[in-house]
Amino acid sequence: MSKKNVAVIPGDGIGPEVIGATLKVLEKVAPNTFEFHEVAMGGNAIDKYGEPLPAESLKICQNAEATLLGAVGGPKWDNQPPEKRPERGLLGVRSGLEVFANIRPAKIFAPLASACPLRKDIAEKGIDFIIVRELTGGIYFGKHEAFKTPEGERAARDVMEYSEHEIRRIAHVAFKMAMGRRKIVTSIDKANILTSSRLWREIVEEVAKEYPEVKLNHLYVDNASMQLIRVPSEFDVIVTENTFGDILSDEASQIIGSIGMIPSASLGEGNRGFYEPIHGSAPDIAGQNKANPIGTILCGAMMLRYSFNMNAEADKIENAVDEVLKAGLRTPDIYTEGTKLITGSQMRDEIISRL
């Protein structure tokens, strides 16, 4: 049997550390199953090739069955022109792979309840929801223009644009996920102000008619950001556009204890997926063995589940992470008094030992 082809983007900062840990976990849980192909993208690609996403790198990702990313970016490349910044490589991969649905679970592990910054009575009700973020449209992919007014003043504009099919397909992803969960979809927009949000709400309501078992709620994004803190237990599946999803998913990462704990999957029409933790490259701790690899390791589990239908192996990884946390072992980002502080590599080894 031929091995499964996986493109691997270590990236910048702590990216190589957390990716290295994830590959070891995957090799342990499914030996001789994968063929990994390392790809240059982000700041390291700028240093080597002068651009954040070389054509060959994108080609390798497009030919792979799945792509794993560590993290990209850092202050070293902050002065690059917009089209040469590391994040442009990230947007280019997402667009080139045609992955339009970003799936970000926000679930608080019971052993990490004390790391939740919310009041104890709120955290004890449980936090377990999924953000389904539209990934290839909206203001990030709209027209960007810097110009001068007739009076000579500097000005800029960024265009948010959505078409019916973009909204419809992401809505279907959200409703299908809700059918396997608690059957509640919350659509987040700014329909009281934005024309694009009014179209968003209209299309989501049309799609909802195809899923009569699912309850649909609407929230304005400003209210949603408040409710995620006030009553996170009431959310099941959230669906929203690109920019709102980017912001709200980072908020979600903090209410479960650490941004280092959340994986994400970006999916298209087939099984091919792009998997990345939602944390950044954290250059301030790169090379110090402090980085929490759990978010990226859980990305590996999502890859097994969504791209390769290896649900049993995905369960083993998720259970191993839970067991390590129950044992009180913590990297610096999730350490609290009464737990044991360990390094990133030790966290990797503790997870592997439980597989």
Shape: globular
Query: What is the structural class?
Result: alpha/beta
Helix content: 25-40%
Radius of gyration: 20 Å
Strand content: 15-25%
Query: Helical element count?
Result: 12
Low-confidence runs (pLDDT<50, min 5 residues)?
none
Termini separation = 24 Å
List how many beta strands DSSP finds.
14
Assembly level: single chain
Q: Output the strand order for the largest sheet.
A: 2-1-3-12-11-4-5-10-8-9
- The sequence of SSEs as H and E is EHEHHEHEHEEEHEHEHEHEEHHEEH
Averaged pLDDT: 94
**Main beta sheet strand tally, sense and closure:** 10 strands, mixed
Short description, anyone?
By secondary structure, the protein is α/β, with parallel strands linked by helices. It has helices spanning 15-29, 43-49, 55-63, 86-97, 120-123, 164-179, 195-208, 221-230, 242-255, 294-306, 311-326, 344-353, and strands at residues 4-11, 34-38, 66-71, 101-107, 128-134, 144-148, 154-158, 184-189, 215-220, 237-240, 265-267, 273-275, 329-330, 340-341.
